[in-house]
Structure prediction request, 250 residues.
Amino acid sequence: MIRRLTATAVALTLAALPALAFDPAAMSEAERAAFRAEIRAYLLDNPEIIMEAVQVLEDRQADMQAQADRDVITANAAVIFEDGYSWVGGNPDGDITIVEFMDYRCGFCRRAVPEVDKLLAADGNIRLVIKEYPILGEQSLLMSRFAIATKQVAGDDAYKLVHDTLMGLNGDVTPEALGQVAEELELDGAAILARMDAPEVTRVIAETRALAQALDIQGTPSFVVKDEVLRGFLPADQMQMVVDTKRDEG
Prediction:
């Protein structure tokens, strides 16, 4: 990656070189050798140019990614913020929505739980949408199916209980273990387990995966805040800064 960036940086630095007295397209071999020597000498004398050029390249790439994110969010706003099947928490009437893509087996998702809770408690005007995005293997998928089935069978409050429990669940996950979770939470485990492979559950997971692919979300946790995608774990104070900025933008 560094080599590729450096090669691009060298190309970008050519614009900073003094104007040459000959047409580069009409160079002789001797002139071409001299030109290359001049570039090398210039870069050795001014090595900071390389890092400046790399920074310019990275900034341009970040701007391109941000614009691509805005375009995709605009095109998919309804399914991102109002899909009709994802759990909604925080302040349902909040003035800004945070959408979280999560996986129960993801260590950073587990680290994000208290940070998101802290943010919601401190702000009080944030609407939170949780999207089940199991990408870490069969146990992740099993847990998401169980959580989605719980919501469909027993409602939002039961889903939240299951969600929080699964976030702290260690060890191998089996249908038997999930049945035990349901029993401990006083839920109808038989009905939930029977629902897990229903087409309605499969559809939720498939639609969330398709949405994540459109948003170029390849890891968890990831968040959508207004017109921006935040890829990776963020502590509460940094998330609050993003929320405040988005509010100021109107």
DSSP finds eleven helices and five strands in the chain. Residues 1-17 have pLDDT under 50 and may be disordered. The first helix runs from residue 2 to 13.
